[in-house]
Amino acid sequence: MYSFKNLRFIEKAENILFVGPPGVGKTHLAIAIGIAAAKQKQQARFINCNDLLLQLKKANREGTLAKKLAIYGRYKVLIIDEVGYMPIDQESAYLLFQLINKRYEKYPTIITTNKSLSKWGELFNDNVLANAILDRLVHHSHIISITGRSYRTKDILFDQPDKN
Q1: Which of 24, 34, 46, 90 could form a disulfide with 146 if both were Cys (CB 3.0 to 4.6 A apart)?
Q2: What is the SS3 assignment for the chain?
């Protein structure tokens, strides 16, 4: 069983990837780790993947990408939530690679994703780039696969086909 409460993953720059379907608690676990880090005075940042990519694209257009990458590169723990829920265009994929590469072996990145890692080539529409990103993320990492039904829909009875 994994225990991130001692925060050793920070000093070892070990990434954490939570992989699983929507509603199984990936985001809650990532936030809990971020809060634990913040309580120990480790600078942590939580951001939705789409919001992060929009910020990086804006910085790229405005000529401030290096500054923005430096800011995100300095967080002791960076949590990128919901990778895979929205399509990622070529520019965004390159920008994400730059950020992951900047943090590689310096500070841990926590990723939550609904896409199995083997499907990231489809997510980025570029197998080479997806492999380069994953190569850096999975090296020195903890990959936690979570299965089950969505907590949000656990009490809903879905229509069952008629038996007639």
Answers
A1: 24
A2: CCCCCCCHHHHCCCEEEEECCCCCCHHHHHHHHHHHHHHCCCCEEEEEHHHHHHHHHHHHHHCCHHHHHHHHHHCCEEEEEEECCCCCCHHHHHHHHHHHHHHCCCCCEEEEECCCHHHHHHHHCCHHHHHHHHHHHHCCEEEEECCCCCHHHCCCCCCCCCCC
